[in-house]
Every structure is written in C-alpha cells, then in structure tokens.
Amino acid sequence: MEPVTILLAEDEGLLLTEFEQALTDAGFGVVAVTSGIKAIKHLNAAEPCMHGVVTDIRFREPPDGWDVARVAREIDPETAVVYISGDSAPDWASKGVPNSIMLEKPFAMAQLVTAISQLLNDRSPPS
Amino acid sequence: MEPVTILLAEDEGLLLTEFEQALTDAGFGVVAVTSGIKAIKHLNAAEPCMHGVVTDIRFREPPDGWDVARVAREIDPETAVVYISGDSAPDWASKGVPNSIMLEKPFAMAQLVTAISQLLNDRSPPS
Amino acid sequence: MEPVTILLAEDEGLLLTEFEQALTDAGFGVVAVTSGIKAIKHLNAAEPCMHGVVTDIRFREPPDGWDVARVAREIDPETAVVYISGDSAPDWASKGVPNSIMLEKPFAMAQLVTAISQLLNDRSPPS
Amino acid sequence: MEPVTILLAEDEGLLLTEFEQALTDAGFGVVAVTSGIKAIKHLNAAEPCMHGVVTDIRFREPPDGWDVARVAREIDPETAVVYISGDSAPDWASKGVPNSIMLEKPFAMAQLVTAISQLLNDRSPPS
Amino acid sequence: MEPVTILLAEDEGLLLTEFEQALTDAGFGVVAVTSGIKAIKHLNAAEPCMHGVVTDIRFREPPDGWDVARVAREIDPETAVVYISGDSAPDWASKGVPNSIMLEKPFAMAQLVTAISQLLNDRSPPS
Amino acid sequence: MEPVTILLAEDEGLLLTEFEQALTDAGFGVVAVTSGIKAIKHLNAAEPCMHGVVTDIRFREPPDGWDVARVAREIDPETAVVYISGDSAPDWASKGVPNSIMLEKPFAMAQLVTAISQLLNDRSPPS
C-alpha cells in the first residue's frame, strides 16, 4: 500500500522530530513543516490531498494552526485534524473545526498516534 | 426550576415561529432574534449567559451564523450549538465549532429538540 | 419546510397506528406500509428517496426487515435505520446494517422518536 | 405493548409531578417515589425489574441517589440511570455509575426525556 | 495472560504478512488465512471462539468478507469486526455488520491496531 | 515535554512488569505499585496529580481497585481510569466510575495503550 500522508506543522525542532518519528513508526507518511505558511502552501499543492493534519497552534508569524486546519478542511472536508498546544486549548471550543481533537501538552506519543488513527477510522466511507 | 435559555436566530418569520414553538413546547426558554447582529448583541448582554444557540447560517447582512456561534463559545466554551441551513452544510467541516450539530433543511421539529437536548446533556459536569 | 419522510413498515395494525402517530406528532412525514414487499416497492419508487426507515423484522412473508434496510441503504447509504422487534434483537449483530438502532419491544414512543432523530442528526453533512 | 417502566425518585413535590408528567407524556410507565429508601424498596420488589432510574441525589435521609443507582445496577447491570441535581454534579465523576447521565438543574423536560431514551436505546441487544 | 486471538483473512501475501506483523507486535495472537472459505472453517472450529476478525472483502472465490463477518457474529455477537478494502467501502452501509469499522486502503498499521483495540475495548462487560 | 504520568496498580509481578513496559514504550511516565494502599498513598501525595490510573480490582487486602479509582476522581475529576480484571468485570456497571474502561483479561497490550490514550484524548479542554 502507498502511505497515508499526514501534514505535521510544528516550529520547535525537537518536538517536530519526536512527533515525526512517532507517526512514521506508526506507519504514516509524514510531511513535516515548521510554520503555518509552509503548511498551507503544502496543503494547496498536495496531489492527492493530505489525509490528516497535525498542527501546533502558535507559529512565529501568522497564519496560525486554526487557519491551517480551516484551509485543510476547505480542500477536503474529511481531513483528520489534531491540534497540539500548550496554552491555546481553551480556544478550541470557539476556533477549532468539528470532529477534531485537541492534544494539550504534555501528552504521550501513543496519544498522538491514537488520536489521528481514531479520526481517520471514524471518517464515513464514501457513498 | 428557572428555564434553560436558548438563543434562536432565524430571519425567515415562519420558520422562526415554528422553531420557537417547538423549543418552547420542549420546555426551553427561547430568546428569538431575526439577525446575526441581534444574536451577538443578546449574547454579549445575557446575564447569566445563554445555555445554547440555534442559528441559521445566512442572514441579510453580516455577521453570519458561523460568527454567532464563535462569539457564543468565546463567552461560554460549553454553549450548545446547533446550526440550521439549507445550502451551507458543506462548510460545517471548516467553519463550524467542535461538538456542534448541523441540521440541514428539511428536518423534523423532533430533530431540533433532540439535537439541542443531546448537546446539553453531553456537557461535562463542572469539576 | 417540506417534511422529512420516514418509511414505516409494521404488520400489526395497532402498533402501526401508534408508531405513525408518534412520528407524525414529532414532525415527520410518514409513509406507512404493512409488509416488507410494500416497503421495498416504496423505497424503489420514492423520489426523492426516503430519509429514514423504521421497520419491523418479521412479516407474514419475505422479504423481512433485514432485507428492507439493506435495500434502503443500497439506494441511499445515508438512510437512517431503526429496527423494531420483539424477539429478533439478538440477530442484530449479524444481520443489521452499520449505524442502525435496534429497539426491542417494549419501548416508549419517545425512544422511537429519539432514535430516528439522533440517527438523522448524526449523518455527516455532504461534502 | 406493555409500558417501559422508569423509577422516579425526587423529594420535591412540584418537581416530582413535573418530571412524572414529562415521562408519562413521552410514553413511559412511571413509578414515582419521594425518598431513596422507597426507591430501593421498589427496586428490590419490582418484578420484572425496572428499565430505568431517574433519581435526585440528596434526600432528607440516607440512602442518597448514588446508592439508589448502585442498587439498581446490581439488580440489572443494563439499567438506564439519569441523575438529577442542583449542586452534586461535581461528584458524578467519582460517585456516578458508568454509562449514566447527570442532568444539572435547570434543565428542560426534553432533556430528561432525551437522556433516558438515549440510554435505553444504547443498551446492547441481548446475545 | 493467554493471547487475545484475531482471525486475519487476506489473500494478498505481502499485505497478509504486513498486517500479521502489526497485530502480533501489538500483542495479539493471530490466525492468518488466505480465503473466505478458510476463514469460515476456522471460525466454526475455533474453541474458544475468536475475539476479533480482520477481513478483506474480495477473495478469489466466495464466500466474501461480508459473509465471514456475518458468520463470526452468528457464533459470537460480540466479535470485533474490521473490514479492509480498496474499492468495496461504499457497500459497508448496506452489507456491513453493526459496530464494525471499514478501513479503506491505504491505511497505516496504527489505524488497524487502533481499530481492533477500540472495538474490543467498547464491548460491554458481561452481566 | 515532561511525561504524562500514569499510576499503575497490579499485584501480580509478571503482569505489572508487562503493563509497565507497554505503557513506557507508548511514551507514558509510569508509577508502578503493588497494592491499593500504596496506590491511594501515591494519589494523595502526587504533585502535580496523576493524569491517569490503571488498576487491578482485587488486591490481597483492601482498599480494592474500585476504591482507588474513586479516590483518584475525588482528587481530579478528569483522571483517566482503566480497570483491569479477570473476574470482576460484571461489577463495573455498579461499582465503576463514569467514563472509565474495563479491560477484561485476556487483552493485548495495544488495548491497554489505546484505552488510556483514548480516555486522555477525550477529556474536554479546560475552559
């Protein structure tokens, strides 16, 4: 099988590496970027579109992770979305997209893998 | 018991009346408004804050229903949100808030009452 | 709004009347039939297709309710399905369709209305 | 069909009447009692056992509503349980039983009916 | 502890090996077969019965994966069922069993492990 | 990131080691104890409080695992709770806490990791 591709956007290098490793070990193909701008550029260029997005909320400059997820869902309403944040979790109720998961730091790598897997598994088959 | 109060925003008069009647019969207190502007004005003024919001998406002028829900959730992250729409349902995946329900027209009044009841019942008790 | 239409198949006259009344009071449009044959005939002829199916399992002759639900889902994979049964509930795990609800007799009319409403509300918006 | 029977335990007379009316209108058979002692007496005597329990938390004397629910589940692990409370909701996480719903006052009658219906509908069919 | 046993039916050798490895690494005992016939033979002979089934839909000859799952559920209504398919996913709504998961290719191995784990964890304890 | 910490209480040494290894490999920090007494001592002393509890039901002396979970939820109502048991599973419906998972032996290590991850991911973000 070709890989299921996840776009991973995180601007802290150590975390980016740790998350990428966990997702790769779990069998996902990962496109790792370090800003919201690059994330949106990749989403717009990806062919076929990404199956899921794992995104930090705050980057050094806009767009933020809330924007990244909205763009991903405009391109494909079925995209699995996992937000990662240390202090933006309370905004999830007003700024998040439906059927997404907010992982607050700290979390274990198994939580990240379970979150994205569960969201992908819950997508309704095409009709 | 004092009533549970729902803000209902719908600009078509006949529908507004039908929805208000259904919610009132179900035991809810209803504040009915006919535009997004009035909805947001009420949300900001309500004391205590509204328990839920039932909102159409498109009004004659901005803000739209997506904005209404975001404001409601900024004020109270636990607000129950039900969107009503004829043709904006596909945007729910990118513009809706988490743990909300999109009711596409047509729907039966029981679906509206069940939707808002279920969302209110699912809110986690305060800790 | 035009009504949301539910196909109701039940061969006991008293129950058929009671269920039809409960669904109508809840705001649904109901097409009531007394056999699996008539149910499938209606499903094939309905234009637009039915939004939901409430079906007894056993009729005096085949097809049974399991067949009715399968045909409904072949026509529209999003159809809400509620099975009603006195003694066929254990077969639900092997003969039912996914995302359906089995109501075992006895049940209250509110359970029927909640079941069909919840299934309709959970259908993912079109993308 | 014979009725689905719900045990309702609430010591404020006006609320007891209001809840009993809502459940009866929804098609349930209701056994209404005004204390935890009477609730447990009824649970132990009921033949066949009650399908669901709607109970206040605090009564004038012990046992409390947490006890009532535990006894109901010891008799029938599938019993639907809805707790009603003004100020005991925070204890639900440590004192409630699994797969139960806590309704905090105030709530609309539709929330009570939806809660008990949803719990009854979610019970797995017997195997 | 003795292992939890999963029946895995897949007729492409490379995929069979990959799935078997992923499930074994996750701690499951796996019985791997290459056809629907062999799958059903194993289900009928297994003592005690299999805890879960992971099955491809199409095999070189009947029975297909829909049949395999139905037989598994007739033997044990609590069996966890995961379907795997490239192009049969749209039929899940009419041919699948309730409380099952359809994994469409491509998927990551973590999705397979999460799917079967989640289904096993959701089974209600015996009463 | 600092680790997410799970309290693991199990009195059989081989199982304790196996569970600890699985949770550690999944990225969790684990505090392993061999009795209910020690578990409750750790819960009361932990600063900050434990994110989750994985507990056997029966220990050589009281308190049992039901008590451990109740204490954990009194300290933090959001604590993720997974019970492990060979023969106490039927009591979960009356003695368990809400939003907990009962894992009956035998189970695969992936089920344990998925259970605790899913419960942690489902906790509502703070508001």
From TrEMBL, chains A, B, C, D, E, F:
Gene Ontology biological process terms from the UniProt entry: phosphorelay signal transduction system
TM segment ranges: none
Pfam families assigned to the protein according to its UniProt record, in alphabetical order: Response_reg
Residues with PTM 4-aspartylphosphate: D56
Assigned keywords, A-Z: Phosphoprotein
Annotated signal sequence range: none
Domain Response regulatory, residue spans: 5-120
Protein's name according to its UniProt entry: Transcriptional regulator
Species name: Sinorhizobium glycinis
